[in-house]
Amino acid sequence: MSEGQKQNANGVAYQLDPLRGFEGLSTRVQQMPVPGPHQVVVRVHAASLNRRDIMLMEGTYPVTARSGVVPLSDGVGEVIATGAAVTRAALGDRVTGTYFVAWNDGPQSHALSHEQYGANHDGWLATYVLLDEDSVVHVPAHLTDAEAAALTCAGLVAWAALTKPLPVGPADTVLTVGTGPVGLFAIQHAKMLGARVISITSSPEKADRIRKLGADEVVNRQQTPAWEQAVLDLTDGLGVQRVVEGVGRLTLPKSLAATAYNGEVVLIGAFPAEQGSEPADPLGGKYVGLRRIAVGSRADFEFMNRTIAEHGMRPVLDRVYPFERAVDAYRYFETGDPFGKVVITLP
Questions:
Q1: Domain range for residue 242?
Q2: What is the DSSP annotation of 37-59?
Q3: pTM here?
Q4: DSSP-assigned beta bridge partners for residue 76
Q5: pLDDT tens by residue, 79-95
Q6: Exposed, middle or buried: residue 242 (CB in 10 Å: 0-12, 13-18, 19+)?
Q7: Handedness of CA 210, 192, 182, 255 (dihedral sign)
Q8: Mean per-residue pLDDT for 324-329?
Q9: What total of structural domains would you count in the chain?
Q10: For range 8-18, the mean pLDDT
């Protein structure tokens, strides 16, 4: 790209003014960023929403959104400029980015957890995104842009829930609670890893759809309120080895009751406290692990993508909106009960 082209390569970015609801989402002219020595500029093709994006807008997320930040942690695009010292990406590469700016591998620290794209670093709801080189992740070639834009948050947190500290396998039964994007990814990932899957849902329609994704057994919580007992019955009274708990404290006691000896419940996401919902002994006397996780590292992301490519897995998409209707996408995500990811595409 010539210098003249660079000067005329203005785009559009959405920006977030938190605590103002949908009125806090507005657009501005975006100049094409100039990358530093270890940065890349990505021309965005698609981005997707997560629950944390609504929480950032409402001010209920643990990390406070910077006023004027470009939202969304999930997206995909083409590398169009690189810094002089960049070695992990080249012009023309199709890439996404990590959720956390600098968590590359190993254990997460408090400091690393508080530096996030779409929160206090500009995210993907724009013509361009500027990424640190270490944040770059190449996407599986068989995925469309809309599918590849769905991986960073929900896809990776479900993967980390099933693979850390040790991956589940053919000898294990996984329970998924909730049919949001994390729950759907968890079903797909667990089947790639060879595990048996039991899923909790709320309607016959959703039950049919998650069976098609690979769930071996489905329990409708509306028809079977004591679904934890149903899970125990399906496992000969032993319980499951891993629970991907995507709802929160309202269903946590039941998830714990459905967990096997030395099993583990992985609590997904940041949830506000529910008044009066926490039992005196949430572990019920069992020796089980309760782990709360925050997405995953770049190394986790790359491992997941290799497995997705090997199996040809495709994320579940609900709706795709054009860039100019991004606010409509937010509204639908919050109130429309989507089954799968809500994606925003750019021209």
A1: 156-293
A2: TTEEEEEEEEEE--HHHHHHHHT
A3: 0.91
A4: 46
A5: 999 999 999 999 999 99
A6: buried
A7: positive
A8: 98
A9: 2
A10: 92
